[in-house]
Amino acid sequence: MKRLAIFLAMLTAAPAAAQVDAVIDDHILPGYAAFSETAAGLRDTAVRDCGSDALRPAWNETFDAWLGVSHLTFGPVEQDGRSVAVAFWPDERGATPRALTALIGDQDRIIDDPQGAAELSVAARGLHALEYLLYDDRFAGSGAYGCALMRALTADLAALAEQIDDAWRSGYARTLRTAGAPDNTVYLGEREARQALFTALTTGLEFTADQRLGRPMGTFERPRPTRAESWRSGRSQRNVILSLQALSGLARELTDAATPQTDAAFARAIGLAERLGDPALAGVAEPSGRLRVEVVQQAVRAARDAVLEEIGPSLGVSAGFNSADGD
Amino acid sequence: MRLLTATTASCILTATMTLAAEPREVLDTYADIAEAGYADSLTAAHRLQDAVAAFLQEPSPEGLDAARAAWRDARVPYMQTEVFRFGNAIVDDWEGRVNAWPLDEGLIDYVDPSYGGATDANDYAALNVVANPVFTLSGRKIDATEITPALLRDVLQEADGVEANVATGYHAIEFLLWGQDLNGTAAGAGDRPWTDFSTGEACTNGNCDRRAAYLRVATGLLIEDLGYMASAWASDGAARETLLGDETKGISAILTGMGSLSYGELAGERMKLGVLLNDPEEEHDCFSDNTHASHYYDGLGIRNVYAGRYTRPDGTVVSGPSLSDLVAAADPETDARLRAELDASVAALEAIRNAADQGMAYDMMLGRGNAEGEALIMGAVEALVTQTRSIERAVAALDLGGIAVEGSDSLDDPNAVFQ
Questions:
Q1: What pLDDT score was predicted for residue B7?
Q2: ipTM surpassing 0.85, yes or no?
Q3: What are the start-end ranges of the H helices in B179-290?
Q4: Does A121 touch chain B (CB under 8 A)?
Q5: pTM of the entire structure?
Q6: Would you tell me which residues 15-74 of chain A have a C-beta closer than 8 angstroms to some C-beta of chain B?
Q7: Which DSSP category does B142 fall into?
Q8: Domains located in chain A, CATH noted
């Protein structure tokens, strides 16, 4: 079995450059374009109407689009902390409500400056800060300042999304495509491009298993439903499903080799996540509900194992370091 | 393709055995540096304990200053050992006892009203054990009349399963010596009055005897914990034995430690996030304003293990065949690049240290609109991220197969999967 895998790896290692192109053209660029488009829509909606009822659907569409690319933690999104500014989570010490309370309490006029929101703490920016403003009663009656803040933060998010999209189109896609070329100082060999994509795949699976599912699970004695990602808007389960679908798409583009174990593992994980019937993952508070979430988590980890054993060797790479290394 | 690479690499490894470093010798050097680093940390902690004992015996401003200086000195060797944490499970499992961070310091002692009380994430963020000899924790009544090692280690540390409940280690001691830094991103560190430890009428902020007891016990625990780790790296120690048990895994552990500390931990969690949050509490040594030094020695530790060379606080040097020698034999270009990048990150961290020594403390660098401070920190972040890519290249050059992949139940035996 092992020998067979190595043999297959030898057969498939050569045309991998075509796979990098496929990932860029069919996964990365359309993903960021969709994110930029939905974020612009959210910004425009806020200009017309800054009320929660009008903004919630546009915010949800933007979050959906972000999940299509949230696992891509390298390149333009890594510069200037953009990924953290888009999605500051997990928020271990409640920095987001603290920062928003301070802004509103001070009626801080920095947000009147078109570039002002970009100067704010990342805890007060992006999708998760907007979720507090849209779904948490504490911020419901923030009046004219709340409205101005909503407009500033949605404009900031749209600007971030546009910058990332532009940077990919105008340069970074080429950097990744030309890995190993003499003038390429980022990717010194063609292999390094494959490794960056492979690391994004495995890291994304680990993030969904350990954070999106693992954080609310807590321990058996002490489950933590309010540590779920975006539980306030009741889309924690949806985030798991959409992230898995995006990762499954990346896995499919990344190799031409047959990957029966990976395909089966993704299908199982996605199926289990879809059947969970627990939008905010609040079910973890009860032993049976926690068990159901744990089954999904195991399935996601099984998908990661399949990817490591099946796709890694076919690309001739292993996972590199990721930002979750450490604590 | 992969078979060919593997064969070539093992030929090189075989060839180098007679020419340059052997993996076994490289691991010996690494373990020797660990042993020396933890022994030096232990020695420095004993000096801290002496200074604390003298201060508590007869509280005075000079006594508190001396204890604070001893704490700063104690950080110098310890931070250089952080690189051993990732990649060596025995260190990682133990590390939380001595260097857990960030902490909700209100667990331990009084805090300013602006700190607030319990948070969404931590019901015990403002427990204040110094002021409360009896309290309820996770539904259990706790008698803390006497402040004991067991109380700190087994009851309060990570109380209620919350990591921010840090009751032991360098940062708990730091909080007791300095108090909260209430200056935000403006100049100034924590300024706890020395009279917080006075006896009788002179006691400020109440419960000085309990506060003194806490400081004494926490310092004693630090010594106990460092002693454990120093012996784990001595000959026949568990950490050394594990490392030497499998040469490939051992070399992998060195590189894993270097890469994880460079990227996820130091560049990400400790540096970049602080800048992005503009939050002075996001500095590693936030009470003492010693963060610039801690980050510098963290970075130096990464270079130490690659170069196989550690300069002890007394100036003597521990050195031997290095990982650099091993990588150079397999891929001289990657070795040269990585050495240059490690020098660059140490230089960038040194620039932060110099700026802090000249008056711009690390928390001031985090301030909204401090472009110079942000550039200093982000320069070091970039250097650390850059070297991480070359650490990955070194992994590839030695054909170590990257992170260790455990056998997978789901693939080996589908029926074993938790249904």
A1: 36
A2: no
A3: 208-233, 238-245, 247-260, 273-277
A4: yes
A5: 0.85
A6: none
A7: E
A8: 24-177 (1.20.1420.20), 188-315 (1.20.120)
